[in-house]
């Protein structure tokens, strides 16, 4: 490895491909397996966008899942790759692709099942497997980091939360300064903007891609509370205030845009679901926004569309995908062009 600085490009930069996975484990997804597959297939079709989007490289675990994925996704050119993995959350288990010395490098971090809560066989092997299949040199890093815990502007600034990156269940021996140093070396992050807590009942311990995202250099989007019973009202207000007080690596105060949160969304047992309009994926030609049958769905899609005037913005149901613990951004990992 050379001493040249790595840099993780912003998600709105051009992609050559996107890696994701097909819901495969019937014992995890139960009655949501086929409905989740339908939602994921719609996501992939929107990303492909009739050939205008990026290449789809989709992992599938086991013969039944491989056959199912080929049948569902073959019509729009997805490459189906047999693989061993626990579940589909490649934002966190796959490599983070960075530019270094004019070439791509696959930054492969340790993965411990979101602090030991969901340790599934094969998930800790996804990063080197994807790097190998992508034909991109792997750079192993021996500390825990999930891709959904950071969001970058492509110029050296990133967003994250203390709830996740400073959680003792990830890297108990690393200080805040240690983590900042590691992120400079691995992803080229020169300025880290620390927010507090994420969404209620988010088993990722506050992943940033559920609460705030860069949409351009110096411009971030987050959610404003919806309804008097929004379970994240205080947290969302604190996020807005912290972002308005923040500056990026170039000393610019951030321009803070907001969209309505989905509000209070519950599962069949009445438990709060960490539904988020922020968990959108920015593809080459389309931005795909998850919907949760919330009263604010249409307003959220309309607001996000204004942030990406050169792309088509699509809202798609994610009610069954989120039963697995995440949404559209959580299952994707883009490969930037360099």
Explain the layout of strands and helices:
Elements (H helix, E strand, L loop, with lengths): L14 E7 L4 H4 L3 H16 L6 E6 L2 H11 L5 E4 L7 H4 L2 E5 L2 E8 L2 H4 L9 H9 L3 E7 L6 E2 L4 E5 H4 L10 H12 L3 E5 L16 E5 L2 E6 L8 H12 L10 E6 L20 E2 L3 E6 L5 H11 L4 E6 L15 E4 L2
Parallel strand pairs: 1-2, 2-3, 5-6, 8-9, 11-12, 14-15
Antiparallel strand pairs: 1-16, 4-5, 7-8, 10-11, 13-14
Could you walk me through the main structural features you see in this protein, from its secondary elements to its overall organization?
A four-stranded mixed sheet has the order 3-2-1-16. A three-stranded mixed sheet has the order 4-5-6, with helices on one face. Strand 13 and strand 14 form a beta hairpin. The protein contains ten helices and 16 strands. The model has no long low-confidence stretch (mean pLDDT 96). With 338 residues, it is of the alpha/beta class. The chain has helices at residues 26-29, 33-48, 63-73, 90-93, 113-116, 126-134, 162-165, 176-187, 233-244, 297-307; strands at residues 15-21, 55-60, 79-82, 96-100, 103-110, 138-144, 151-152, 157-161, 191-195, 212-216, 219-224, 255-260, 281-282, 286-291, 312-317, 333-336.
